[in-house]
Model the fold of this input.
Amino acid sequence: MTGTVTDAPRDVDRRRTLGRRGRAWGLVGCGVALAAPAALLVVRLTGLDAGTPLAMPMVLFPYSTVLGVLVLGVMVAVPALRSRWAVAVVGALVVAHVALLAPRFVPERQQVPADSVELRVASINAGGGGADPRALVELVRTERIDVLAVEQMPSGGVDALDKAGLGTLMPYQELHPEYDSSIYSRHPLSHVGTTHVDTAWPQTTAEVAVGGHRVQFVAVHTYYTLGDAKRWTRDMTALTSVARRSGPDAVFLGDFNASLDHTPMRRLLATGLTDTHAELGRGWARTWPVGHALVPPLIQLDHVLHGPGLMGVSVGERTVPGTDHRAVVAVLALLPEKGPTPGRNAAGAAAAGTPSPSRSRLLGIVVPCPPVPAAWP
Done:
């Protein structure tokens, strides 16, 4: 009887010790799990990703937010981890993450004017010509695309698209497979050419006159962060300089190799451009990678950005076999003019010295184009 009474306090002490150890290890585990969200928040707020290897993990910022929410939920649900100071710190971290992400999930409540003209645009990284040409042409036909930007399409891929019938649907073309990107259109093109700014390779540009507007298109493909983060940052900085000189009717579309959390992308958007996905509350669209059985699309690298003269109506992603990027398809409304028609966009001026008629250019060869079809069949 005496032995039983003596052992009872020891058992209680042992359980208390184990409980304290378990709580300590639990809090340590939560701290380790929160290291990534905390570090990415610091990078996001300070812009340390610009020109540094930190640009690569920055694409995971939304996932780190989810991780923070899960850790906070565990700490609240498990009594042993329910420390006031710990919950307060983690809660502040989660609130900061959510505050940065929330705007892209809230659609802008703007009414599309009834008399506005719609322009259907699309962009796809063709994966070095690996994209199935027939599938891409079918996408253009099905979605009734007016302007298509194609990145990473070599001359062989251009020929394949022509054989598949893209030239019939989109006879006006500014093709630069010798550089990287090309623009196809159902409408006549003018002020065609490439940019003359500090990018890894020239970006193809063209202007489309539609609905009383002259819309400047820039087919974007930047260097990639894994290869050279400094080169990628210079590309984005150069595009930012082009955007600053562009008029309100500008569309930058393509593979930016950037998410909305990258500092260079935010600087580009600060020029007055709007990301169509964020505008419509599609804040977690994923366009890369595609074509891997065990890995679904995880991040958005492909975007359609537009100036204040346009408004997003719809946006979505489409899978085309043969490439590791999903195509982005957007419908943009051209807003009625509020004043005098602005002069020619500087992006077009940087791309071409003088106005020129619509033409098709392939490796320096200028070929006249047939008339555009009046309407989709």
Notes: The first strand starts at residue 117 and ends at 125.
